[in-house]
Write a structure and sequence with these properties.
0% strand; elongated; 11 helices
Length: 253
């Protein structure tokens, strides 16, 4: 049973290597965002709220979180293709837990997000963002992205399995994208103009994820946000994975 499970995980990793287009697309989009917003808004970095680190250091977590959009949609669409091909149904005959297929796909997706997050941070460093947190900080930010992104991908997969509609694959990622614009993504919270956006940002999980990444990678912001963000990422990762595993019965029954 263990060897069969490893074969399923190995297949998911091979599929990721053979079709890296979703994450490459996400990396390209993240790099585009970093370059364009740095060019358009970088002049405000003299403000004391940026702690002398430059605007790119503040913006970098947005580039990391942006990876989730393409990844969540791509993994759910790949899952839909395997269901349509009958592979998922044939898996039910193997001596492994029925959830192994989707769990292997989530693991591969999380690994891809982790590597892509490292690439985004590396690109940010080459563009001039200070990496004051060193290797531990970079790895910590990538781990947060992988855990959170894996949960989003799992929730997207669960949506497809429960509804049978592949066109809904990107809905969860789109919600995350909208939450980015309701968080202090581009400027610190105290510089947000509308009071209602400042109020919404307090309850927005993206606020704390990005604050934690800024602290880990560039040493700016509140270090106290790191354990809180880790809790958010853990709840998202575990909750999404549990939902996806439970949704397998909708396909096999």
């Amino acid at each position: 049973m263990r060897s069969s499970g490893m074969l399923i995980v190995g297949r998911a990793l091979r599929l990721f290597v053979l079709n890296p287009a979703p994450l490459l697309s996400g990396f390209g989009m993240s790099l585009f965002f970093l370059i364009v917003y740095q060019a358009g808004l970088g002049g405000i970095a003299f403000l004391p709220q940026f702690e002398g680190a430059g605007y790119l250091a503040y913006l970098l977590p947005m580039g990391i979180v942006s990876l989730v959009f393409a990844s969540s949609s791509g993994s759910a669409q790949a899952l839909s293709r395997d269901i349509a091909s009958g592979y998922f149904q044939r898996l039910a005959l193997a001596p492994v837990p029925r959830s192994s297929f989707v769990l292997a796909a989530i693991l591969a997706d999380s690994a891809g997000i982790f590597l892509s997050a490292l690439a985004v941070v590396g690109a940010g460093g080459l563009l001039g963002a200070p990496l004051r947190g060193g290797l531990p900080g970079v790895l910590g930010a990538a781990a947060l992205a992988a855990l959170f992104g894996g949960g989003v991908s799992a929730a997207s997969s669960a949506t497809v399995m429960r509804t049978g509609k592949v066109e809904l694959a990107g809905v969860i990622g789109q919600v995350v994208f909208m939450l980015l614009f309701l968080a202090p993504t581009f400027v610190p919270r105290e510089l947000l103009g509308a009071k209602w956006i400042r109020a919404v940002s307090v309850g927005n999980p993206m606020t704390y994820l990005m604050e934690a990444m800024r602290s880990l990678v560039s040493g700016i912001g509140d270090p106290g946000s790191v354990p809180f963000a880790a809790g958010i990422a853990l709840v998202c990762g575990v909750g999404g994975t549990f939902l996806a595993a439970r949704s397998v019965r909708n396909v096999l029954n």
